[in-house]
Amino acid sequence: MKKLFAGPFVGEFGHELFCWQGKIRRLSKEYDYTKIVCLKGHDVLYSDFADEIIEYEPQTYIPDCSKNKGTTKNYPIPFSEEEKYIGPNTQIIKIYDTDQDFVKLGTLDDKLQYDFILSARNTNKCETGYRDWDHVHWNSLTKKLLNDGYKIACIGKSGMSYKIPNIDNYMDIPLNKLSNIVHSSKYIVGGSSGPMHFATLCGTSQIVWSGDNIHTNKTRYLDWWNPFKTSVSFVPAHDWNPKVDKIYEECTLAINEN
Hints:
Helix content is 28%, strand content 18%. With 258 residues, it is an alpha/beta fold. The strands form 2 sheets. It has a 6-stranded parallel β-sheet with strand order 7-6-5-8-9-10, sandwiched between helices. Strands 3-2-1-4 form a 4-stranded parallel β-sheet, with no helix packed on it. It is elongated.
């Protein structure tokens, strides 16, 4: 029996989505049995093809994973010589690679449908936190959308996302539950980040902005990392700081067109 043992991927979430799990899914077709090690809660990315899934929490986050192939300390999962082993981040591929297989994520649930899901990145893990949109801006945008009668919720992880007040909160929920909420909703709004890339696989239309590498990031959202051709409204934003009125305008235009 041919066996594949892969993981865990321990870098940026967007790279796991579009430079790892699709590649491993395609590769698994060449094996009789696939064992996956993944971060806690990420099993939904592998459950459609893996025969065995083991969750693992690394000691530290490994950033810049496209350059840092990395290893994890005290790796607890033994593997046998008869298994094909692909360790942490060693299967990183170029930013655009069509030799992958993807599946859509999420199940439609009318009770979980929102007009807008807000992904408010709030972390300084990239040293300066320059990609974060000020809380004042998020509060202002939220107030405008609530005044228009839209149903809104926020998502993310504590310590990495801003919990926006006065709206439904789905922070820190497992990816399988998050996929249902995002898939069931009309739009997701936020700066370029992992949750926005995740929404692409959920088939949810996006209003997303980026403040650097504009051409590359736009192409990534519209083409390279968009296997199901999810609708994307991409907003170039100087210094990652778009005007509130601009994002509000994009939101109202998008939802009124549909």
